[in-house]
Amino acid sequence: MLIVQMLPLKLITHPSNPRLRTFWLVAGMFIVVILLEYTTPPDYVFGYLYIGPIVLANARLSRVATLIITLVASGLTILNVWIPGMYHVGAPTITSRLVVILALVVTDVLSARNRLYQQALLQQTAKLQAQEKLASVREDFASTLTHDLKTPLLGAIETLQAFERENFGPVFPAQRRVLATIIRSHRTSLQMVETLLDVYRNDVEGLKLRLAPVELVAIAEEIAATLTELASSRRVYISFNYGESDFRRFLWVDGDAFQLQRVFVNLLTNAINHSPRGGKVEVVLESGSSYQTVKVMDSGAGVTLEELPHLFERFYQGHSDRQAKGSGLGLYLTRQIIEAHGGQIWTENRVPNGAIFAFRLPVLTFPLSVST
Question: What pLDDT is recorded for position 11?
Answer without folding.
Answer: 45
